[in-house]
Design a protein that fits this description.
By secondary structure, the chain is an alpha+beta fold. The protein has two helices and eight strands; from the N terminus they run βαββββαβββ. The two termini are 22 Å apart. The model has no long low-confidence stretch (mean pLDDT 92).
Length: 119
């Protein structure tokens, strides 16, 4: 398991993008009014516009994503170790992900890239 993404949810994506561009000294690899990404080694730093989640939507919360080879197996292993998964594995446009919380309440994503996810 390795860190593959750090996600920040903000009200003003262009302002946050400009800030992080100055802080990091690099251009975003992608940006628009609702989303920006910066790549650093193998970690994606994602800036996403804050939204009000609807029924069935993922939480709109800052989080860290850990990449794994197989989400379903990893989640089963984590549950056997006593951890509780809040959002079970599901397919998304970026791949397959599941979500749980650390003891402080922060959201943690366990993710498998789309190219590695079973079809």
């Amino acid at each position: 398991m390795k860190i593959v993404e750090i996600a920040r949810f903000v009200e003003d994506v262009p302002a946050a993008t400009a800030f992080y561009q100055l802080l990091l000294g690099v251009e975003p690899s992608y940006h628009d009014e609702t989303l920006a990404t910066f790549l650093s080694n193998e970690v994606t730093f994602l800036i996403h516009r804050r939204y009000e989640p609807g029924p069935g939507d993922l939480p709109c919360e800052d989080h860290i994503a850990f990449g794994v080879e197989e989400v379903n197996q990893t989640v089963a292993d984590l549950e056997r170790r006593g951890l509780t998964v809040e959002h079970p594995p599901q397919d998304y446009e970026w791949g397959r992900s599941a979500y749980l919380r650390e003891p402080s309440g922060s959201l943690i994503e366990i993710t498998q890239a789309a190219s590695e996810a079973p079809h």
